[in-house]
Amino acid sequence: MFHISKRMSVIEESPTLATAAKVKEMKEKGKDIISLTVGEPDLNPPQEVKDAAIAAILDNRANHYTPTAGILPLRQAIVDYHHRYDGLDYQASQVIVTEGAKNALYTLFQVILDEGDEVLIPSPYWVSYTEQVKLAEGVPIIVTAKADNGFKVSVQELEEKRSARTKAIILNSPNNPTGTVYSKEELKELGNWAVKHDMIIVADEIYYRLCYNGNEAVSIASLSDEIKKQTFLINGVSKSYAMTGWRIGYTIGDQAIINKMVELSSHSTSNPAGPSQYGALAAISSSQDFVEEMRTIFEGRLNYVYPLIEKLPGFKVTKPQGAFYVFADCSEAAKMTGYQSVSDFALGLIEEAGVAVVAGEGFGAPNFIRISYTLEESVLLEAVNRMKQFIEMKKNN
Fold first, then answer.
1. Cis peptide before 45 (omega within 30 of 0)
2. Under 8 Å CB-to-CB from 351, ≥6 apart: which residues?
3. How many other C-beta atoms are found inside a 10 Å radius of the C-beta of residue 18?
4. Confidence at 2, pLDDT banded by 50, 70, 90
5. Do 358 and 300 touch, CB atoms closer than 8 A?
6. In terms of CB atoms within 10 Å, which end of the chain has fewer, N or C?
7. Which residue ranges does the record assign to the Aminotransferase class I/classII large domain (predicted)?
8. Going edge to edge, which strands form the sheet with 368-372?
9. For the segment 231-283, what is each residue's pLDDT rounded down to a tens digit?
10. Which domains does the chain have, with CATH numbers?
């Protein structure tokens, strides 16, 4: 038997990807499954994005190593983008382009954390936060955000978990999995508290262009120079431009930390894929009409499917303000259908109802399931009808 490193013994597989893999396997065996699992738009990126990547290949601009931090035109476009939308001023040298926003987070944690450093993580949280912190030998400290408070944490709740070892806090707005969007005032209070305690703010803003029904996300770095200095912005093209497979994310922040992220990447990934960088350049530099079109489509889907989910027996939901998920408390539904846990209930939905959702345990909320509404309304309706029939059938047995 081969020895497996200690670092691998403290992490678990991503539940979202594990569920997606299970669904794929069942589909290959002929099972009729509607998958509401992966956080992936069902749309395709704009044609100009695809054309830009193809042109870069044909012109032989994308066939060789690029700078580890990413091509300069893309980094400058990212800087210009944040100046345009957030009023933020950065230098291109303060940007590192990475293989998706997930890798941006991973590399940042590897650079800023030492063994035993604590990171405050509001729960529910994206599944990889805790595991990436552990891989950097840090300690994830969970701060529960209650549903009756809109899944938002307060300074008081964070202060209760702060210690002398607290190094950073992760803020994800709009939030995956809840769709919560913090207001400008709420973010400013959280940012000022972090500055007061010399805490790094890891601002995961990957969904911040996808807000609905009059809600609007604010970049926390735009709220003051003091907060900006403590903040590392995490973003990318996966969600807003429907480019999940292109694997382009980025981090913006303090020059010294970015330099070290570049050094680490030079020994791990070398550089992001060339064609993807040229596609991302086209996406970020474009008119942004596509982003608004997609946002409008998802807003319509949310407003269509939310009332249907809200009426499901044993479901308790809070209407999301952004991202593209509904996070439902199904503890009562699990109980009435005879399951010992919501995880078992979610498994029953896949195996018996043919509807795949992600159990909330991996998000730090074991009583919940995450439902992605990135599919057409007719498919969402069929999925909800299947869930309703499943619950009614199990309830009556």
1. no
2. none
3. 15
4. confident
5. no
6. N
7. 31-386
8. 316-317, 325-329, 368-372, 358-359
9. 999 999 999 999 999 999 999 999 999 999 999 999 999 999 999 999 999 99
10. 6-44+289-391 (3.90.1150.10), 64-286 (3.40.640.10)
Greatest Cα-to-Cα distance within the chain, rounded to the nearest angstrom:
65
The Cα angle at residue 231 between residues 86 and 194, in degrees rounded to 5: 120
Distance CA 381, CA 397 (A): 25
Three-state DSSP string of 155-186: HHHHHHHCCCCEEEEEEECCCCCCCCCCCHHH
Return the closest-CA partner of residue 124 out of 345, 317, 360, 321.
Answer: 360
Whether cis (ω within 30° of 0) applies to the bond prior to 124 is: yes
Residue 63, classed as helix, strand or coil, is coil
Structure-block tokens of residue 2: 């081969």
d(CA 367, CA 345): 10
Cα–Cα distance measured from residue 133 to residue 89, given in angstroms and rounded to the nearest whole number? 29
Residue 120 dihedral angles phi and psi, to the nearest 5°: -75, 125
Strands (E), the chain: 34-35, 95-98, 118-123, 139-144, 166-172, 200-204, 231-236, 249-252, 316-317, 325-329, 355-356, 358-359, 368-372
Q: Per the structure block, which two tokens stand in for 210?
A: 């996808």
Separation of alpha carbons 162 and 266, rounded Å: 34
